Fold each of these.
Amino acid sequence: MNRFFGFFRNQRFWLAGPLTTVVSMLCMLAMAVYFPPGVGNINNILMPLLMFPIIWACIFFYAYLTQHLKRAWFIIFTLGLINLAIIVLQFTLVKGS
Amino acid sequence: MTRTQIEKSTKKASLLSLHSWSGVVLGMLLYAVIFTGTVAVIAHEIGQWSQSQAPKDRLRHADIDALVRQLAEQTDPKYTEEISITESYNNQLVFFFHTHGTNPSGALDDIGVEYRVNEHNEVVQTRQGFGSELFPTDDTNALGRFLVSIHTELHMPKPWGLILTGILGLAMLVAAVSGILMHRHLFTDIFLLRSARSGEKLKRDAHTVAGTWSLPFAFLLAFTGSFFSFATSFGLPAMAMVAFGGDQKAMIYTLVGEQMEVSETPKETTNLNLMIQDASARNDAAPNNIVISHYNTESASMELFFLPSQGAIISKYEQYNAATGSAEGVKPFVGTEPSFGSLILSLIFPVHYGTFAGLFSKLVWVSLGVASCYVTMTGLQLYAHRRENKLSQWQWLPRFCHWGFIGLPLCSLASAVGFFISSSLGLSTSNWTPLAFVIAAGMVTILSVVVKPITTLKYVLLALTGLMCISLPLIRIALSQTGWISAVQHHFEAVLFVDLSLFVCGALCLYQVVNYLRQKTLSQSTLPEAV
Amino acid sequence: MNHLIATFPFIVYATAVLILLTKSDTRRATFYRKIVPDYREFRIRKPIRMALMYSLLVPFMVFIVVGNAAGFLCYFGAITVIGWLVAEMPGNVI
């Protein structure tokens, strides 16, 4: 079993797998708040959706290839937190208004 | 070795491992999506071919105005909120009078009445229900729809199928990027395909050469494909949550560009035919579909969708104020005002679908699909080949490769046979097309288990695929009476294109089988002398 | 169909250039010299090879100037497929 499921104990798996997926989704969602909506009022919805595969790929390859795992954990985690904060702020503002 | 060299070789090993595992774990599903995607490029032609009825552009030439008036009178007024009009592959006009609601599964859906009108302007079928129930049971497009649905969601329930195909798109992206990063001589090896002593091409070279050439499109198709899957499965609802506080309806209104405030004051809609003629003349083509909103009210509008015209790659929505009959110009792909997002989205469609320059662009896109299929096949075969003689637990992989790589086209052809036979017997093609696929898949699986010599299995499956390819046009001609001469007379290119493509594929499969049998006979006849 | 007919000569040109580039590829020649009897070598000087390679990009500019977006995409797709098919040809053919 260890032969097949040994990757669960690998830090890089958790960094490049679940964390990268969650953080790239948070980046996409937070972009809806700060991306300029443009005249058509739709750029802030469409552009983040379009950029999601690229955001994911960038974070994934960084997480997968980096030699400095601790730094990568810190950077990706912080990126996730900042974007989460933007989303939370948006919801509080919407509720408040 | 210096520290940088060690780091480089570790990175290369990690990339190779990533490239291999993204291929091995998801390779077969990726092949299924790419193969059916290649077929989906010509889904429209397959639809026309399956019905063997030359298109008559009835959306341009029929008296749409009279038909809409007549049908609107017999329809519940709430369903005249929106009327979509399309032409089915058996030349019937399909009118869907509908409003918007929520279906039993809680999703936003269209609900209304669908009328099918034949060439004598008689209503031949009336159905009522949700759009999500009516469209999947349209028997005229059962074959094309079944094959396209494998590509988009692998026939899995929503949204899981879309999420899986999105993940497959990302896997393709990973394989393409890791392929570039790990290959040192990517562009110097672009013309070199070495062969072994037996004359067989080296699997590694076959994989890298095809992979390098198709790299730009593999990247583009993977990126656009994963966008389509993720955006429709969870992206749009999630964005609605953040940008519109969860109001999906408000977001759809913004994206579709519908009027939020509508006047329901009755006002007779002007002659629809005049607007259709005007738009058709300006685009020098028949519309692909027509949507009329708020029929017979002050807010009545009409949208006509046209495929790209000469030299362009972007499709067009011509918009009219149906209350006054005045043209309101071309509507952006998304939203009410031209925007960067709408432009990019309108470019993504032709790049992914290849449907911008008729059969010519489709032929190029099919070839790109074939190249991508070849890359996936050779990649997985390379992995299987490297482990074949070393580890006993990988012995199943080459067998699995033949089962999938030849089995899927074979089962797709079987689904077409199922479609034709059920159609001629008056049975539901929407049920029998998938059923024929499943029956064929069962038989291919049994064959793959029963036939022990792996080479024999490969050529048995290839022979069956070749025979099926050649017999399908014959079955179609026998059942429809639309032969090639008649197709040429009626400028029915789709039938000729699909029939000839099948003959070419069949001939290629059978050529390989005959070649194998000839070599086998030769080696057997020379064996006693050698002894 | 005019914009597609306009694309066709460029595709024919690209095919010819890709055949020349394949035939004059030194790595390919080194390999096939050993296994194909009477392999006819075809040499093109490196600067000319580079010029030929870059000339494949010229049609892209023409399509942009003329505004033939469909031709641009078709040409792009076609050269990748033709390049692969030409490279797949065995040494006794190309």
Amino acid sequence: MKTGLTVSTVAHAALLGFGLVALSAPQALEVADVEAFPVDIVPIETMTQIQHGDKKAPVAERAAPTPTVRPEPVPLAKNVGDNDTDLKTAANAEASKREVQTAVLPKPEPVPTPAKPADVPVEKPKSDPAPVPATEVTPEPQPRQEVTPDPAPETAVSESPDTEAVKLPEQAPSPQSRPQPPQAQTAKAPQRRDAEKPAEQQAARPQNQERSFDADQIAALLNQEKTRGGGALRSNDQAALGGERTTTGQKLTQSEMDALRGQIQRCWNVPAGALDAENLKVSVQFKLDRSGGLESNPEIVAGGNGNSVERAAAESARRAILQCAPYNLPSDKYEAWADVIVHFDPSDMF
Amino acid sequence: METLTLAAPGGELSLWALFWQAGWVVKLVMIGLLAASIWTWAIIIDKALGYARARRALDRFEETFWSGQSLEELYRTLADRKTSGMGAIFVSAMREWKKSFEKGARSPIQLQTRIDKAMDLALTREMERLESRLGFLASIGSSAPFIGLFGTVVGIMTSFQAIAGSKSTNLAVVAPGIAEALLATAMGLLAAIPAVIAYNKLSSDAAKLGNRMEGFADEFSAILSRQIDEKVLHKAA
């Protein structure tokens, strides 16, 4: 037994010793030397959900448009810009090269209400000298108009705050500044007034108009041209990367799309011949208005121009869209479903 | 920007490191299995040598026994020697025979029974000697894998606890613990496989030797029985 034990112990020790040397560390798995390369993951939102901003500005944490020049806020303004009135045109849209056809208020009555606010007293008389001859006034006041920068001392009618308003043209139109325009037209107005209306009426008139009538707002409504300006929402922030206007990038949810699909499918009478044609596919495009009604006739954009069966299928698809017309879609996502393309595939139906 | 880098694991994976990193339960299991392996091999070597020696002894004894030498003479040479195997059986039978005749036993049947009993006893004793410690091989062969598995399970348990603590599932973190745990199973198998093979081989060898001795015992019993009959007839005549 002693020999066996000795031999066994020695053999084990030898084996362990060999193991410690030979199996000391297995060769590390050879991993190909891969050079790490950077991968930028670009979210699709950068394409679909553009904020109003500067196209060349760096990406910022928070989207911001280019800073506007005049920071006084206008209440309830929605579009960024320097205007006094909130217009929908972009803040830095280029003025059209062709002649601007701004709607000019007709002035049948010789009321001295200004077409423009008081902040341009100097130019105004120059810009429309036409109305002056229209009125049956003596030409003598015209030379006086050129000296308008300091007509204030001359006017006896105007009150003292009026003179201040002339010096500070930035001041927004206010009841105090209103009486100023008559001052600008000192030459014509008093003469006409004298002829037609008493002085008291003259004072009362601008006051009433102040509530009901704002020339800027009407101009904004009538304005059909893209002009310099933009909205009235003031911005002080550093410009961030963005597009010309904000697109919300809203999408219809799957269930909303299913609802639309179901609505169209109910009205779709698949022509009998279409059942056999396996790859008979028709795409119909149509525009919707905000109420969900059809804005344009559905237009077949793909398929339906082969044999009679295909034409029939295309017509049936078009009919289905016309038939189901007022579509029930979330109005707050109108941008997403204003223009719809529906793919009709008869092979999916059966 | 995500920069991905692939790095080779830096864990120490040598045998000694694997053993040293293991928990105390796993270490205990490994040490036990190592000891069992050493003892198994000790038994295997001892038995293999012993059986070879026993086989040679049987051959030599049979040669001498059937050489025509007188049994009395053979007994005299073997009686004062330490004998094993067939020699031991022969000596025990002859001793009983001598005792009976020296004291003048009269019943031949009783004598035959006594001699058979003595030979059976010697045979059993010899077989016991041959088969001693083979049971240890059998139990190591069947239980060592389980012991190793136990060490592995405990090792993997602790290594998973460590992984949960480190909050990383990197393979470099997971691998050393599992490798060290698997070492226990490897050692269990290392001890069990030779034990099972050796047990089967040695037990069949022992059975062969036992059959040979049994055959000799039967033969010798027949010879003695013939002798007894001759003596009884001689006496009767």
